[in-house]
Structures are given as structure tokens and as C-alpha cells.
Design a protein that fits this description.
The complex is a heterotrimer.
Chain A (H helix, E strand, L loop, with lengths): L2 H5 L1 H33 L4 H16 L2 H16 L5 H26 L3 H9 L4 H31 L11 H12 L2 H31 L3
Chain B lengths: L1 E10 L2 E11 L4 E5 L6 H8 L7 E6 L2 E2 L7 H7 E4 L11 H11 L5 H14 L15 H13 L5 E5 L7 H16 L3 E5 L3 H7 L2 E6 L2 E6 L1 H6 L4 H10 L2
Chain C lengths: L16 H33 L5 H16 L2 H15 L1 H9 L4 H39 L4 H31 L11 H12 L2 H33 L6
Helix pairs in contact in C: 1-2, 1-5, 1-7, 2-5, 3-4, 3-5, 5-6, 6-8, 7-8
The chains are: A mainly alpha, B alpha/beta, C mainly alpha.
């Protein structure tokens, strides 16, 4: 029944590996940059707040595909030579997802009581120390369910790197479909793969939501 | 030790503190009381630079708090502070709460910091709770850990902002006992509190504040028996049973 | 830093490129608006199903949301476009594939189905957040069930839902860009096309970004107007 899938499984799995790699780098970079974005969005210094807010509002209003294209066109100009789709995609995703993670973390930062941070300051800790040991870890733990949900969204979004020819799962499936024309099997397969992985992810997220109820 | 001269603070147009003058000597325990909104908590936070003020001067051991060249981080190491809602770091154990600042600010080794922390936990009466998280501690236990956390930096002054107001009645005593112990041991303390029993026992001076001003100062029984101002009388009659 | 690149912003308005871009914008607007109507109607229905007292009705609603939420939109679109016609059997498939502008219709329907699942979630959350509080308060003052729904629950629910729905309305225009992958000549597709002809993709995509920003501002303005008008006529006085 799924013979077209079995026949091309190694090729398709190779594509899935690219999907996973892209997701991984996008998340690491996106969350790291997201922390800075979140901090920037609660900064009292106007020269930090306004640029960061502009950046966040800009990116959140435009489609991811466009961001992917934009970097694909821009990077060669800066670097001086044509660019491989994978690094271009990674950069696009990091810049894009950082705004979403940034907003999630901002909510987390704002949920930490001012007194708690002052308690840290009152023992002589500096701004970076209170941010690194108190503000960020607590915000992370509180927003973990949302972070997981957003990570799942990032994972799904990797399929859009299709448009710059990145050989991830969906593109490879489309290529195979071009040859085999067994569309129901092939696209059904991709749909099922995503469905199962994302559904499991949402269950994990819900588990953390429950854990969080207990005293945080 | 602490000198406050003509200090005033505004939040926008609203004046929170009005020409505060006070001297606290080493070893003294000063209790500050007054209705809510009188500026007591803000006063504490002005002393260790957590809140800025617009007029006047605050000197801690000769160092001016508002001087831009003052290193506030260093200053805060000398002043320990305990908060009304304990404000323990929820993601760390009691021991980690206490050792964080010594490790990162004073650069102590893990052994040194850990040893000192255990001593402090023993001193406040709960050495067995070293590896417990705040969520698993009672209010009284949390506050005692908070006191140990403040003491870990070996401060010269301890400030308390309504330390027992958020506690269930049966736990107030265990925290006050620790505070009395500290006061009798010679620590310089500024305590914002309505616990008059505590004030009676160890306070060298009691200050009554209202609407950002110091209305009256007194010592011991004098203060309770013969308050000079109407407002003080009124306030005392409401909180003393 | 010397960039080996000459900027040519004229690609945005010179013929034929400017015309292409305008055509693309028109398609983006069509895709967004029509799919939004589908999404609202379907989404409210499914959202209401999810709080229905009958378990099977609830389950169908939940299944719909879970399926459309856990599969990337691009995959959904490909499935409907490539695999969809095959579902109807060989004969129908050829007929369907012969429809001109098939990708346009598939894109609208696909976008509508996908967004409906998100709207359904907002509807469900909206109802869930009021049912407890206001329900009993209203009944305790002597209102009948119907009066309660009409004067308390529904106006309240609509007001709660408007902000997240605004976000979804914005998102639908962003997601319409995915339709370019099945050849729908909307804004993003056109910016790519301009690049393939002129090699000035940077200007083209920047121009496209401005278009989406403008659409975004328009949506926010529109929903803001709806929200404030609703407030004036509102039956529940709330800040």
C-alpha cells in the first residue's frame, strides 16, 4: 500500500535528517537570540527598546517565506558569492523565530516579581548576574509549555525552506512524487510523520503545564 | 553607621518621602512603623540604592548612596535585606539560595560557601532543610532561609521589610526569635514591622511614619505609653490590642 | 564595505514588474479575505462543537483541530493539490486537474480549512474562559438561560475573542504566501518572479515586505474599528 514510500525510504529519511538538523539549529539560535530580544523588549533604555521593538514588529508582520527569500538574496551580496541553502535557511529561521521566542520569554520575564530580583540585588549581585541566574532560569521554567509549542511550530515551519531548494523532507517527497506520482501515499506519509511527531510534542508540553501548577 | 539627611523622594508628582532625617548607630536596632503607604518600604530601598531619591543624602558608613561614582553592588554587600514575601529563588534549593551571592560575588569556593551556609541554616534552626526547594518549605522556614541568605554576605546592617506580615500567626514567633537573637548579638538592624512585642524587647528607637514623614521618635515604653502626636496615638490604638 | 551590487528600486514600479506586483497583491487580498470567511464560519462551528455536551460531537471537533494543527500548512496544501484529485478516482481526477486556476481554488479552501482549526481553538478558549464566572452570576440574578446567553455570554465571548482573531486574520494573509508553492501568482510569487527576470530579488522581496506590512496595518486598523464600535454598542460595560 505504501510501496512508493518504502521504495524511496532512504532518500526520504535523508530529507528528514535535514529537517531535523535545520530545526535543531533554528531552535538553538532562535532561543538564544530570543533571550536577548526578550530582555531588549523590557529594557528601560530607549536606544535598546525602540530598535528591538521595531525588529520584532517588522518580522511578525511578514511571512516566513519572504524572510527566507530575503536572506537568500541578501547573503550572497554580503558574502560575495552564492550561498548554500542550508546556512541561509538557518539564519532566516534564527532571525524569524527569535521574535516569537522573544515575546514568549518577555511574558516570562514580566512574570518574575520585581522584589525577587531586588532580593538578588540586595545580596550584591550585578544586573547580568541577576539576569543570568534568576530572571532567565525562572522565566524559562514558567514558559516551558509555550516554548515547546513554539518549537513544534518551528519544526513544522522548516518545510518552507522548500522554496530555496533545501533538500528537506517535503521537498524530497515532492521530487519523488514527480517521478512516481503516488501522491496520496507520499504526501500522506509526510502528513502522518508530522502529525505523530507534533502530537507527541504537544503531549510533552501538556505534561510540563501540569508540573508547573505545583508552586512556581 | 547610616545617616539620612533631608532626604526626599517623588514618584512623578507624588511625594513619597519628605525631608527624612535620621541617624542609626552601629549596633542599634531601629523599628519603623506606620500605616501602609507611609513610605516605610521605600525608605529601606533608598538606603541600599534599590530606589533612587531626588533630594538629600544617605550615607552608609560614610559612603554616599546617591553619588554616581559609588559602586552600589559593593555597597549592597554590606547591607542585608529581608523581604515581606521572602522572595526565595524558586528554582534553587535553600542551600543554593544562600550560596549564590557568596559564590558569584565574593568568589568563594563551593566548600567555603557551603560550610558557611550550613552554619547559617543551623543558626536559624533548619539545617535539615538545606536541600529542600522553597515550594516545600513553610512560610516561616522560607523566611528563615531568607534571613540566612542575607547573612551569608556578612553584612554590617540588616534591613527587614515587614518580615512577618505574610506569615501565618503560628510561624511568626520562630522568625521573630531569630531576629531577636540577631539584635541581641549586636547587629545593626532597621526593621519595618508592626510587631510591637518585638519592638518592646529589642528596639533602641521606634519611629512612626505617616505620609512620607517621620512623625515621632521614641524609645521603649515611653513611645507606647506617652505618644506625643495625635496621629501616633491613633495608629497605636489601632494596632495594639 | 563595497558591495558588488547595484540597487534598482525601479523594479517595483516599472512595467511590467509593477503590474505583476499589483496583480500579486490583488491575489493575496482575495486569498486572505475569502479564506477568512470560510475559516470564520467553519471555525466557529467547530469551536462550538468542542464545548458541546455530546461526547461524539466533541471528539469530531477535537480530531479536526488536532489533525489540521499538527501538520504543516505546506504539507496540507501539497496533499490537497497533488493527492486530492486522486481521491476521487481516475476519471474524476483528470476532470479536476483540467480545471483552470485549480491551484487558486485549492489554495483558498486549504487556507480556509487550516485557519478554521485555529479559529476553533480561540472560540473554545473564549467560551471556556467565561462559562465559569459569568454563567452563575447571571443566573443567580434571575435571568433565563437564553437571556444569559444573549446579554452576557455571547457579547462577552466576542469581545474576548477579537484580539486573538485579529492575530489570526493577520496570519491568514501571511500564510497565503505559501500558495506560491503550488503556483498561485500572489505577492511573494511575484517578487520571486521579478527576481528571476531582473536578478534584483533584494528590492523585490523588500517591496513585498512593505506590502505585507501595509496589509497588516490595515487589518489592525479594521479590527480596531470593529472592536471600538462593538464597545459603544456593547451591553456589558467593561474597560
Amino acid at each position: 500500500m505504501f510501496d512508493a514510500v518504502w521504495r524511496n525510504l532512504p532518500y526520504l529519511l535523508g530529507g528528514y535528517w535535514v529537517t531535523v538538523k535545520l530545526t535543531f539549529f533554528a531552535l538553538i539560535g532562535g532561543i538564544a537570540l530570543g533571550v536577548l530580544v526578550g530582555l531588549g523588549r523590557i529594557s528601560k533604555k530607549k536606544w535598546i527598546y525602540y530598535p528591538v521593538t521595531f525588529y520584532v514588529n517588522l518580522i511578525r508582520n511578514i511571512p516566513l517565506i519572504l524572510v527566507i527569500f530575503w536572506f537568500y538574496f541578501v547573503m550572497p551580496i554580503i558574502v560575495g558569492r552564492p550561498m548554500d541553502p542550508f546556512p541561509s535557511a538557518v539564519i532566516s529561521f534564527i532571525v524569524f523565530e527569535a521574535t516569537y521566542f522573544g515575546e514568549i520569554l518577555r511574558a516570562g520575564f514580566q512574570s518574575v516579581s520585581r522584589d525577587l530580583i531586588q532580593a538578588g540585588y540586595s545580596t550584591g549581585l550585578t544586573y547580568w548576574q541577576t539576569t543570568r541566574y534568576l530572571l532567565v532560569p525562572i522565566a524559562f521554567r514558567r514558559m516551558l509549555p509555550s516554548m515547546i509549542t513554539q518549537s513544534i511550530v518551528t519544526y513544522q515551519d522548516t518545510s518552507l525552506a522548500f522554496v530555496i531548494g533545501l533538500p528537506e523532507l517535503v521537498r524530497r517527497t515532492a521530487i519523488v512524487d514527480g517521478l512516481e506520482v503516488r501522491s496520496i501515499q507520499l504526501f500522506g506519509f509526510v502528513a502522518v510523520v508530522f502529525f505523530i511527531t507534533c502530537y507527541l510534542g504537544s503531549i510533552v508540553s501538556r505534561r510540563f503545564e501540569v508540573q508547573r501548577e505545583r508552586g512556581f | 553607621m547610616i545617616e539620612i539627611r533631608d532626604m526626599s523622594k517623588w514618584y512623578g508628582d507624588f511625594q513619597v518621602l519628605s525631608r527624612i532625617n535620621e541617624v542609626i548607630h552601629r549596633g542599634q536596632t531601629v523599628v519603623v512603623c506606620g500605616p501602609s503607604g507611609s513610605g516605610k518600604s521605600t525608605l529601606l530601598r533608598c538606603i541600599n540604592g534599590l530606589e533612587p531619591f531626588q533630594e538629600g543624602e544617605v550615607l552608609v558608613d560614610g559612603v554616599s548612596v546617591s553619588d554616581p561614582s559609588t559602586n552600589l553592588y559593593k555597597l549592597r554587600q554590606k547591607i542585608g535585606m529581608v523581604f515581606q514575601r521572602f522572595e526565595l529563588y524558586p528554582h534553587m534549593t535553600a542551600l543554593q539560595n544562600i550560596t549564590l551571592a557568596p559564590l558569584k560575588v565574593k568568589k568563594k569556593t563551593r566548600e567555603e560557601a557551603g560550610k558557611k551556609a550550613m552554619e547559617l541554616l543551623a543558626r536559624v534552626g533548619i539545617p535539615d532543610k538545606a536541600d529542600s526547594f522553597p515550594a516545600n518549605l513553610s512560610g516561616g522556614q522560607q523566611q528563615r532561609v531568607a534571613i540566612a541568605r542575607a547573612l551569608a554576605m556578612e553584612p554590617e546592617v540588616m534591613m527587614f521589610d515587614e518580615p512577618t506580615s505574610a506569615l501565618d500567626p503560628e510561624m511568626i514567633k520562630e522568625v521573630l526569635d531569630v531576629m531577636i537573637d540577631l539584635a541581641k548579638g549586636g547587629m545593626t538592624m532597621v526593621v519595618v514591622s508592626h510587631e510591637m512585642g518585638f519592638a518592646r524587647e529589642v528596639a533602641d528607637e521606634i519611629i512612626f511614619m505617616d505620609e512620607g514623614k517621620i512623625i515621632e521618635r521614641g524609645t521603649g515604653e515611653e513611645f507606647f505609653k506617652n505618644p506625643k502626636s495625635e496621629r501616633t496615638k491613633d495608629f497605636l490604638s489601632k494596632i495594639l490590642i | 564595505m563595497r558591495l558588488a551590487y547595484n540597487f534598482d528600486w525601479g523594479v517595483l514600479w516599472r512595467a511590467p514588474y509593477g503590474v505583476w506586483l499589483l496583480q500579486g497583491i490583488w491575489l493575496t487580498i482575495q486569498l486572505g479575505l475569502i479564506a477568512w470567511i470560510i475559516a470564520l464560519v467553519l471555525g466557529v462551528t467547530i469551536g462550538t462543537m468542542r464545548i458541546s455536551p455530546w461526547p461524539w460531537v466533541r471528539r469530531i471537533g477535537t480530531a479536526y483541530v488536532e489533525v489540521f494543527r499538527n501538520i504543516p500548512f505546506l504539507v496540507q496544501l501539497f496533499f490537497w493539490y497533488f493527492a486530492g484529485p486522486m481521491i476521487f478516482g481516475q476519471a474524476m481526477m483528470f476532470k479536476i486537474n483540467a480545471i483552470s486556476g485549480l491551484n487558486y481554488y485549492v489554495a483558498i479552501i486549504g487556507l480556509g480549512l487550516y485557519t478554521a482549526s485555529r479559529v476553533a481553538e480561540h472560540v473554545r478558549a473564549g467560551f471556556a474562559s467565561i462559562a465559569r464566572d459569568q454563567f452563575q452570576a447571571a443566573l443567580s440574578t434571575g435571568l433565563t438561560e437564553i437571556q444569559m446567553y444573549r446579554f452576557v455570554i455571547i457579547p462577552y465571548a466576542l469581545r474576548i475573542i477579537i484580539p486573538p482573531l485579529t492575530t489570526e486574520f493577520l496570519t491568514i494573509f501571511k500564510n497565503s504566501s505559501v500558495a506560491m508553492t503550488i503556483g498561485v501568482a500572489e505577492t511573494t510569487f511575484m517578487s520571486y518572479k521579478i527576481d528571476s527576470e531582473t536578478f534584483h530579488g533584494l528590492e523585490a522581496t523588500t517591496g513585498a515586505m512593505a506590502v505585507y506590512l501595509a496589509i497588516g496595518l490595515g487589518v489592525v486598523k479594521l479590527m480596531g474599528m470593529i472592536e471600538s464600535r462593538f464597545r459603544i454598542a456593547g451591553l456589558v460595560g467593561r474597560k
